[in-house]
Fold this sequence. Notes:
The chain is α/β, with parallel strands linked by helices and 319 residues long. The protein is built from 11 helices and 13 strands. It has helices spanning 41-50, 65-83, 88-103, 115-120, 123-126, 149-160, 204-210, 233-243, 251-261, 281-292, 296-318, and strands spanning 5-10, 30-32, 38-40, 56-61, 104-108, 131-135, 138-142, 163-171, 179-185, 192-200, 220-230, 264-268, 271-275. Strand 9 and strand 10 (192-200) form a beta hairpin.
Amino acid sequence: MNIRKAVITAAARGERLYPVADTVQKAMLPVVDIDGLTKPVLQIIAEEAFASGIEEICVVCAPGDAPRYQEAFASLRTNLLESFKNTDWAREEAEKVDHLRTRIQFVEQEEPLGFGHAVYCAREFVKEEPFLLLLGDHLYVSSLAGQRCTSQLINLAVQEGCAVSAVNPTIEHQIHRYGTLTGKHLPHQKGVYQIEKIIEKPSLSTAELELQTPGLRAGFYLCFFGMHVLTPSVFSILQQQIESGTQNVQLTPALQEVAATEKYLALEVKGNRYDLSKKQGLLQAQIALGLAGQAHDETLTSMVELLAEANQRKQAQLV
Length: 319
């Protein structure tokens, strides 16, 4: 199995990031990456994919957003070269933006018919190849030195020659936010499971009855991490949903059918995912990237100072 292509879904308008998402696509929000440089979220996600061997990327976006993305990256390149003349880092960043622009294409999801439909919009780009699927509002921070989260996932998919979804053991009070699954642990492969059942955002009572996985700590469940390696068979399954007239085409039922018809594994990725759309998600992602990268000391110092200031204010209020 050779995985050359990636799909990034970025069609949602980001209502939970109002009002900023009304004027700027949430995938273009600026974040300081682990290398200490400020970049759009989409560039950080794309560079995660490129660093793991991906050669081509398709971004599924909302109607009218394709030219906006293209213009934004063209403007970013120009600003780097004109505003920071004769600086090596700016030239290097401009080269990265050029690389991204030549390896990325955009497909618009004409109607908001669900996450599964957004994935289906990339079928002509993917064709008959396995592909990496990433979310345009998630950032990933690996806890393995020198190995990205996407690399961990792709390595297992190539080794086993099958679809693999990244998962993270998640405490029970948070599982209503995620697709949650259970499966059989594979012997001699730590953190690898043969997927048996998947439920999208289950209630705790449903999870307790149907999704407990032997070997996990009590009160924890396997939840999707926000990245998958999928085979092209998923498109025919999604097409059946679309042709049936479903107005909210979801990916999870299609993945359940994948689990029933072909080898499909889950991998506990060593790292963390940060959902930028949830409350404080952007802040959490920025802190995590700061602590994981070149700005570790500066980030830690800033956090200590802010905590000290907050404690001083609290003490002053008690006087």
